[in-house]
Amino acid sequence: MPLPPASPAPLAMQRPPLRLSCVVPAYNEAANLETFLPALYEAVRLLSAECEIVLVDDGSKDETQALALHMAERLPLQYVQLSRNFGKEAAMSAGLDYARGNAVLLIDADFQHPLPLIAEMVQLWNSGYDMVYGVIADRTAEGAAKRRGTQLFYYLMNRDSRFRIPENAGDFRLMDRKVVDVLRQLPERNRFMKGLYAWVGFKSAALPFVPDARRSGQSTFNLHRLGALAFEGLTSFTTIPLKVWSFIGFCISLAAIFYGVYITVETLIFDNPTDGWPTLAASLMLFSGVQLLSIGMLGEYIGRIYDEVKRRPLYVVDQHVATHALPVAAPGTGGEGAAPAASRPPQA
C-alpha cells in the first residue's frame, strides 16, 4: 500500500530533552491494562527520563478504576475517570488536556499498536517532525465490507477538501506540544480527531505498521459504530452529502421533464391513452421519499449546529488521581499550554 505523501523533510533542529506523555483512552480494558501499562512504561522510560501515562477511563464498567489506582502506586500515572462514556474522541481530548509533556503519544490499550514503533516515532520527532502517525499497512484480516467502506470513506473525505486526511491513518501518533496546544484550542464539540489532525497541518511523517492481535476482549467498534464515526467525519469536514442530494434532485427533475415531454407526445400525436393513476402514485412516492431524505440530511447538519451553540463541555471528570506524574510547567516551556475554558483541567 503506498504511503501518503509526507511533509518535506524538516531542517535539522535541536529538540529539548524529551518529556513524554502517553495518553491511553480505555473503555472496559481492565484485562489488557494489567499487562499493557507496565509494558508501555518499560518501552518509554528507555526513551525519556521524564515520562508519564495519562489513563483516561471513558466510563468503564469493569475493574479499570481499581486497577488504575493500584498501578498508580508504582507507575508515573495520571488516572482521569470520566463521569460516563463520552466516546473515544472525547476521551482522547481529555487525555490531551491533562498531558504535561513536550511530546504526547496517543496509543490504544489493546496491544494492537506496536510498542517498538514508539522509538522510531521519537527519532523522527527529534529530527524535526511535529507529528508522526502510524498507517495501517495491511487490512487483509478485516472483512470485505469494512475494507470497501473504509476506501469509500477516504475517497469522499478527500474529494471535497482543501486538506488531505491520510488513508488508513489512525490515532496511534506522536505529537509535539505545539500541535497538542492547537488541538486543545479548537472549539468544536463534535470532534472527529482524524480530521482535526490533518486540519492543523504541521510537518508530519507516516510510519507503516501491521496491527497486532488483541490480547483479550473484543473491540467495541463494530460496523455500526464505525459507520456512525464515518458519518460524523463526513458531516464535520465536508458538504459532500448535501451536494449528493442536490445532484440527485437535479437528475430526478431532469428525468421528470423528459418523461413529461414523452407523455405529452404520446398522448397528442400518437393518441395513446395514458394510465394516470399508477404514474401519479409512483411519482408521489418517489418525490416524497427524496424530499424526506433531503430534509433528513439537512437536519443532520442543523443538529450539529444545535450541539455546537449549546457549548457543553466535551467531557465531565469524576475523578483525577496523579502520582509521580510530570510537573506542570509554565506555558511556553514545553509543558502544559492553554486549554479551552470548557475543558481546562485543574492545576496540580
Automatic annotation (TrEMBL):
Organism: Comamonas odontotermitis
The UniProt record lists the keyword Nucleus: no
Compartments, record wording: Membrane
InterPro entries, A to Z: Glyco_trans_2-like, Glycosyltransferase_2, Nucleotide-diphossugar_trans
UniProt entry keywords in alphabetical sequence: Glycosyltransferase, Membrane, Transferase, Transmembrane, Transmembrane helix
Entry annotated with the keyword Transmembrane helix: yes
Pfam families linked to this entry: Glycos_transf_2 (PF00535)
Name assigned to this protein: Glycosyltransferase involved in cell wall biosynthesis
Transmembrane segments: 244-265, 277-302
Membrane topology recorded in Swiss-Prot or TrEMBL: Multi-pass membrane protein
Domain of life: Bacteria
SUPFAM superfamilies for this protein: Nucleotide-diphospho-sugar transferases
